[in-house]
Amino acid sequence: MYEYQSLRKCISNNDNELIIFGADRFSQFPCRDASVNSKCDRVLPVARSDDVVVLRGKLDSEYHKWLRSHGLGSDHIVEYNAYSGEMSLSELIVNDPEPVKKIIRQIGKKPVYVPWFSGRMETEAAKVLGADLFGATETATLKYNDKSAFKTVCQELGIAVVEGTSFDMHPEDNNNCTDMENIINEYLSTCETVIIRGTLGEAGMSLYKTKGNDISEIYNEIAASGERSIIIEPFMNVSSSPNDQWAISRDGNINSLGMRDQICERGMVHVGTLKEADASADTLNCITKTSVKIVTNMAEFGYRGIIGIDYIVSDDGIFPVENNARFNGSSYVSMIVDNIEESFSPIPFWKFIKIRTEACSFLELTERIEPVLYDGKKLNSVFPFSCDTLPLSGDFAVILLAENMAEIFNIEESLKEMVIKSF
């Protein structure tokens, strides 16, 4: 149907093009708080030697040195040294494009701007850099990335979705909270638990479960987050949460990137990903057929870029629940693994997880996890990335690389023991 092609080749298969990575998440959210950080550094190990990486803040030289020692990453780094959340990375580029344009002139290739999420300013940034955009218009992005709008698209395509109600937030209206409570209580009359999802939130933001005893507290938290609308649905008994990844290239070609198995806490908050979905052939076939309908519709509408469709497999059926019409966390993981495989050897199994240790430098982290740290020689190992919050909160992410699932389990247990000892 649609053959696999690496994400790198979906972005550009032309040696005369210069890929410029800008992995800033800020443009996705109408309101930013302490729970949102830009995560620009996630693309440092994704980039190849002839790519450009643009950072909001300052480069972690120790992490960069470690990457380069293993033949990963690029030395073409632009640092904007911006630490407030006032402007997104694309806005910083539009306001001062010269640092990026200087590298474009030096290298002399046609630039392609690759942002995390495509909004209005991403189009402007590409324009000011004289670059093609690997992304979509803001209209196309929001049509599919917004959870409520995506449900409407599915219904128009004849795809079954979870029963639910869209609800607009109006904190200035004293009756708005009561209206939300009434809808929730109506669902609670036929189910035990209700899930509430912000239409733009991701990674656990504006995502709640309730049995009806904390609705006012939830309402206030959502209002404070800046979410303009939410979806209220019955909470289902879910056996698995596959993520089906696709890409539509700049010329409109549709490419399958593979299906992942998501690991979710409390049945809803994504905390990790496995390389391949663990599901029956019938389930995989059902998901693929549904995805083809959705992705074909997106291509026809003019969407370009990455797609990650989240599904739930439940007692009541298989349903698409959201469309990450942007880069996904595991999109970067896949590209990192591709880079490692090119310089090392095939990776039969991998698992992506978020983890926490005591706040420290990257150099200190490597000392803590040295026995399992990736060294470019041993297969069963831990590859750290997304380390920009490591010195502040101890939060980072890793890819567990292994020859089989038993080794994945062993490495993960060893890693957790090493980082817990540091507390």
From TrEMBL:
Keywords for the protein's UniProt record, in alphabetical order: ATP-binding, Nucleotide-binding
ATP-binding found in the keyword field: yes
Residue span, ATP-grasp domain: 151-358
Protein name: ATP-grasp domain-containing protein
Taxonomic source organism: Methanococcoides cohabitans
Organism taxonomic ancestry: Archaea, Methanobacteriati, Methanobacteriota, Stenosarchaea group, Methanomicrobia
